[in-house]
Amino acid sequence: SIIRMDGVTMVQEDGSYRGMLFHLQDVTDIRRLERMRSEFVANVSHELKTPLAAVKGFTETLLVGGVSDEKTARSFLQIIYDESERLNRLIGDILELSKIESKRIQMDYSPIHLSSFFDTITEMMRAVAEKKRITLDVDVSEELFLEGDEDKLRQIFVNLISNSVNYTQEGGKVEVTAREIPGGDNQDDMIEIVVKDSGIGIPKKDLPRIFERFYRVDKARSRGSGGTGLGLSIVKHLVEQHHGRISVDSEVGVGSSFMIELPILQEMNEM
Ligand code: ADP
Asked: Would you say which domain of life the source belongs to (predicted)?
């Protein structure tokens, strides 16, 4: 622990010495938060600088007329465009995360029919999956409902399914399943949703860290697929806002499963 000590000398009204008053405060948590904050700022700056350096460098080369053929010039422009897009995504994710972390988000709960909910999501993701010839299967019973914020739940599952598609080789498989877990005496009924893929997997040593901001197993691969390294931190926060839990199980070369447990009802938690 880090203890901060402040001392004040106390004097009598006539100016004579009366004693010292000490104030001890455990500032371990405050220090830890300060350190996390400054690490985050350093990471953000680094992440923003990388695409910006590419934009600047390629623009400069074009500006000084260092490229004579049209084809190369076009490829430089494409890089500049892609890197600007990346900056845009990064800034969007950073703003989103800071909004969620400062608890400035309003939850808007409504009953959600899970199988229709996942139909809409898979419809959205189908094209991306088909490009890589990845089978996207949803096995969710018609009877399952839960209370949640639909936009935020969509953000959770779009993120998880995109990751699964991103980190799975051509011809692989992504599967979404859901089941009800009846709660005990003092526990709410929960729904467990699993997003499982037959992808590249995550090494055991990286598993505990993948929900951290900007943590990536393979930076180059994540960048190449347009990742910002913030997706899973956003997902974890959104699951926790729903009073749920997320966990992961994975084996390199076999695939990964992300398990999300969400309470069926929210009002009880809100009180
Ligand atoms: P990114 O934008 O890099 O995908 P995320 O926060 O979504 O960032 O994920 C963090 C890291 O976890 C990824 O860079 C990747 O290394 C790993 N990861 C996430 N999902 C999967 C998955 N389904 N299969 C393999 N690795 C994954």
From this structure: Bacteria
